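Late entry, evening session. Most of the bench is empty. Finally got around to the prediction I had been postponing all week. Sequence below, unchanged from the version circulated by S.P.
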Amino acid sequence: MWDIRITRVFAAPRAEVHRAFAAPGQIDATFTEASGSDLLAGEAGGMRLRVEFHDEPDDRTRLILIQGPCPAETEGQVREAWSASFTQLDKVLARH
């Protein structure tokens, strides 16, 4: 078992990505820690979850997601689920 690390850049400012990611119903997770618009931490799918938000040039945001420990046999499913969530998040951000 190991942690999964996924990095994705969104075409929106950090505070906007953070707000959309943390909105109720957007992500199936329970967040127990937050640090401004830089960090969310909690649990998703029975695993620890840490999400970092970093400024990028041109008002973009680099999101780093770390989730684990993840059994090797479920890593592909977890990555696919986050990919689908990030695609949905792109749509939410495009409406703003």
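Two things to note before I forget:
Residues 41 and 50 are 4 Å apart (CA to CA).
Strands lie at 2-10, 30-35, 39-44, 47-56, 60-70.
Will write this up properly tomorrow.
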